[in-house]
Design a protein that fits this description.
The chain contains 7 helices and 7 strands. With 251 residues, the protein is α/β, with parallel strands linked by helices. The protein folds into 2 domains: 132 residues, no CATH class; 62 residues. The strands form 2 sheets. Strands 3-2-1-6-7 form a 5-stranded mixed sheet, with helices on one face. A two-stranded antiparallel ribbon has the order 4-5. A hairpin with a 2-residue loop joins β2 and β3. α2 packs across α5 and α5 crosses α7. The longest helix is centred in the C-terminal third of the chain and has 27 residues. The protein is extended, with a radius of gyration of 27 Å. It starts with 13 loop residues before the first helix and ends with a strand.
């Protein structure tokens, strides 16, 4: 019997198939986003007047040197786990009643009639600037953002159902300053402690006001973008703002 030849497989189109598969996976694959500590970097502005002097009581300074020694508000700290507790104290010490003798930020308290008056005032100013010939767009935008901020505070006070809205000083902030030789683990720990403190403050407020956690409100907002949840988060951010300044590392 004659030996039958095995037919050859035509591999001419394999390269095309492989290329199409490569394109398919490139298009359909999603890349994980970095989970680093993301901060909104403010735009560079030209200072016309002298910068405002910030009172020491409004600065929560965290410093780490090249030997990984940690200093918080001018005092050495051996255990970084204590940072979050100190930040919570920084926010809460004068929250109920101002004490001019301590070293913590003061709180302002504003009523609904005062907020309404400021909404009317800032709205009038914004309209006047907008109708001014050759008015700079940045100035117009700034004025309307002022109106929006007061509108947010009005909504916040309505949700709180109290007489006055208590806010920590506008100067109050957390300042992080490390050196280039500081170990990344310590830098990451500082960032983690700051995030933990802010989240804990907002979580406590969320439980008291809305009877649910800050995390659950955030997760729900991320899914459906509901107006009510957005206003809840807005209120919590007004009560406990995350004002964080990271100083450029030295040496």
């Amino acid at each position: 019997m004659a030996k039958r030849d095995i037919p050859e497989v035509n591999a001419g189109s394999m390269a095309d198939i492989a290329f199409l598969l490569l394109i398919f996976f490139l298009v359909t694959t999603t890349m994980d986003k970095d989970q680093a500590y993301i901060r909104n970097i403010p735009k560079k502005i030209e200072l016309v007047d002298d910068p405002v002097i910030v009172e020491e009581r409004n600065i929560f300074a965290i410093q780490a040197n090249s030997q990984n020694q940690l200093m918080v508000r001018g005092s050495l700290m051996n255990d970084p786990d204590e940072i979050s507790e100190r930040i919570i104290e920084f926010y809460r010490e004068n929250e109920k009643s101002n004490n001019v003798k301590n070293d913590f930020p003061m709180y302002s308290r504003i009523s609904m009639p005062e907020i309404n008056a400021l909404i009317n005032k800032t709205t009038t100013e914004a309209e006047e600037v907008e109708n001014t010939p050759n008015a700079l767009p940045d100035i117009i935008d700034f004025k309307w953002r002022q109106v929006a901020e007061w509108e947010k505070k009005k909504t916040a006070l309505e949700m709180l159902e109290t007489d006055k809205l208590a806010e920590i000083s506008v100067q109050a902030h957390i300042r992080i300053e490390v050196q280039k030789a500081t170990e990344y683990e310590l830098f990451a720990k500082i960032q983690s402690e700051v995030e933990q403190a802010i989240s804990e403050l907002r979580d406590d407020a969320a439980m008291k006001i809305f009877n649910e956690s800050y995390k659950s409100i955030k997760n729900r907002l991320a899914m459906d973008k509901g107006v009510e949840d957005r206003e809840k988060i807005q209120l919590l951010k007004i009560l406990y703002p995350a004002r964080i300044i990271e100083v450029t590392p030295k040496r």
